[in-house]
Amino acid sequence: MKPKKDYSYDKEVAEKEVNVAYSRIMLLGSAGVGKTCFTRSLMKEKYQSDTDSTIISDVKSVRPIDTPPAEQQDDAITTIKSPSDKPLSRTKEFITPDDKEEPRYKSSHNRSVRFKSHMLSENKKWKQVDENDEIDELAYLITAVYDKDSGSEDLRTAVAALLLYKIESPFCPSDFSNQKIHREEVDSFLEKAIKRAQMIGPVPIQDIKPQPFMHIWDCGGQAVFLEILPAFLSSRTMFFLLFNGAKSLDEKWKNIRSKKGNMVCDEVESISTKNLLFNWMANIHHHLARIDEKGAFLSYPRIYCIGTHGDLINHDEQIAAIEKMKSTYKNKAFSYLIKKVLIVDNTTAGSDKEDPNFSVIREEVSDFTCNKLIVKTPVSWVLFRKVIKLLGTKVIGLKEAHKIGLACKIPHNDVPKVLLFYHDLGVLLYYPFIKGLQDRVIISPQWFVDTLGEVFTLEGRENQDATEAMWNLLREKGILVQPLYQEVWKDCKEIEADDLMELLVHFCLAAEVETDQFFARNAKQYFLPAVLKSYDTSYLQSSCDDEPVARATNIYITFSTDFVPPGFFTRFIASFAKVSSCKICFEEGVFRNRIVFKFGTPSVNQVTFTDLCTTIRVSVERYSDAPNITPFSNTCQELKSLLEKCGNEVDIALGNHSDFSKSIEISRKLNYECTACDKYELHYISPASGQTANLPFCCQKRKNYRQPTPEESYWFPKEEQTAENVPVTISEKEMAVISKRVGDKADTLAACMEMLLKFKALQQNPAHSNNPMLHLLYEWKSGGGYREDLIEALKSADLHQLADQVKVSDYRPASGRLSVVNIRQPTNEHCSDFDPSQNVKDIEAKNSISNIEITEAGVKATRGSGQLNNSYTDQQHQEQQKFSEAFWDIEDDDLLRSSNFFDVKDIKKLVEICDDDSGYLQSVMDKYQHSDAQTIAIQVLRALVRKNPSITKKDLKKKLHLMKFEEAANNLSEPFEATKPAPQASQPAQSNTKCFVL
């Protein structure tokens, strides 16, 4: 068997390090301010007055070089002479010295001089990276790591072998002939690099200085695109924030687009240029500012404020604009990131009278890249980057990346580190934490950003034949439907359309929702708030024509930087929209900075979110007080927890944690508007730690303590009604209570627990038919059920009040209903208030349920068969039979006789007094609401007895007397058989006075 040839180089060489200098230059600012012209000016290209607006972004790779005049002239007349000299890129034409000029090239450029041409000198010129630059970079690496020519030839062979992987790639399908052509191009490239390395001669690795490569991101300034870009921020970046120096910073900016010389205004934004730049600065600081291991600020990122249209204002006006800009932000937390404020004239670009500020900017960029962003990088990592770039594709699989890494002598476990390293540098994109993308490496960030941005449209995309209605739905309602994004991304063969949506969901740019806005109900729908138009928040708009029955004081989400970071609000809304209990209220209008949700089940609560630039206002109102719905205070407290959760999700989505430096933590806080003082000046109240609805607040304005108003108290729990220290599982005592309170919704609850068939079987089993829900809960817990799961099931079954009680493990009756005080040991003479929690105590005292001990062995026995073991079943049946003989002395005829003495008013009173939070008696009364009074009465009395199996005829009679139903009580007949005394009856009678609180 032939040994497999090893094409890789020595590990000792692979572990050597070289300096890498990569930086990203991101141009941000309002639309139409001149970012594209500014980029051309940095490249010393001629000014063009009719430059088209950038859509999404335009990424250029450039480098500063020293090009002597003679060489510039030579380059100008050089042409491509052979197929081997053609560039690898199919979109750009590069100029490459032909073979016959190589001797002159070698003799006139020794190693030090040629090396200098890669570095920075007095005569800098920026140029777009071409094949020559790539060849030179690889050539110097080859001369540094290989002592012999054979080593570089082995590298050439290894790369050729690696190119074969492309044929097997599932993400980049292409025919064999194209693969062959590309392999020949790459081989030609390596041949030139090796030949140039031989001309240069050996270079000690320590002599290789940083080779600067800069990636310029000219970002679309339209508001919708500004929402996308935070997902691609990197700390190793110079940010140029451009503004119109000829206009006031307080002027509201416009979404201006230029296409073929025509200027189009999309919409007027409610934010001023000053606030727009302010938000970007704070956003950069919030997400990218870092602290090193010594606690000092890192030298990156950096911010430069660049005013354009310098040709429209004189020198004094320029000075005034610069001073205005400096004074505006000098006391802000991010001010240390601002390095310079300059005014430039783009019209002078490429001429002899170029604005000198462009030279200043180039010098700043070059110095920053070569002196501040130096990263020592293993040679193996550098070659890894070179090879994946040579593959000439947009996306490769992670499996391919591992194979390439192995050939470059990178350990298998280090390949993800390499990918994250280059991700942070902006060279590629790698998302190991996103489903659908974790096994792919995106080689072309520009392609990926542009692909995602195709759904973030501007006006005009709606006029596309069959998809016009779907584009309208996206633009007006923010709903992106599956047929539309499949159509938009149908030509994207590298990544599936659904996987691209996963990325948008991960970064909280989209949320999967269910609406009635699209006719195909089985098609996926996503809500994209970022594509919506803005709402002028200066106008007051009533969210509903009806007067709410309850309203909580407004919550204001504030940030320690005194503003809402760009992109935070729309992501916050997207995170909130995916909650199952939230529904978008399209009737009220949906906007990028204001949106209304229906919240809760049923949807009787209305939540309005408004982005006020400095804060986010959250308003909550209830428009119905129907029975059997969650109390408004519980709704507000659930919403408050949800606000915190959504905020944390956005922080994670916008965070950049691929490096090992410490981020600067920016605090976010929920503030409660004071409703006791006048409304002329907004201020907050300061809740104490562990604040409840009954504890005093401190008013931040008056600095005094006072009791909460009803609007303020909704946000805080009542005393002892918190979910802290509540067990994660349900106790047996709780099961007994819950099983009684479920009432006639037992079937629904069983279905929500996905145990309906089991529940039906328990109902048919004589041993379990008396309380099948109790046994169902036991089996559910034995199977691993948790409290949170049961809470969700109860809510789905519309048992919201019971769900709230399960959440805090507090089953006492709600305020306003009957409660019991001065409870003593129960006897046959007691007066029950029909509170199910007291029911449990009675049952325990009479040895009906609490004496049934369920052991761990019994639990294990049920897991295989899904039933309780036989010994437990027999024991329980005996106990229930004993209980039935002792207490079931109420005949149906007794109830029928008594029902003759109730009118409708009496029945309602009986239900109001005796019903519990489950609303079981109320539901029975509603079921027979169209029947006569006697029918309703007999059904309610039967339900009352069913819910209280321990009640005797004497108890019921006394209850009716206490409720002033004298005739109904007197007509309950005497039992036919003497009732056996309860176990407690043999004990001495004790005073057991109970007080009914209505």
Automatic annotation (TrEMBL):
Residues 378-530 form the COR domain. Residues 83-105 have a biased composition (Basic and acidic residues). Transmembrane segments: none annotated. InterPro entries: COR-A, P-loop_NTPase. The keyword Repeat applies. Residues 80-110, 977-998 are annotated as: Disordered. It holds the Pfam family COR-A. Keywords: Repeat. Residues 984-998 have a biased composition (Polar residues). This is COR domain-containing protein. It comes from Amphimedon queenslandica (Sponge).
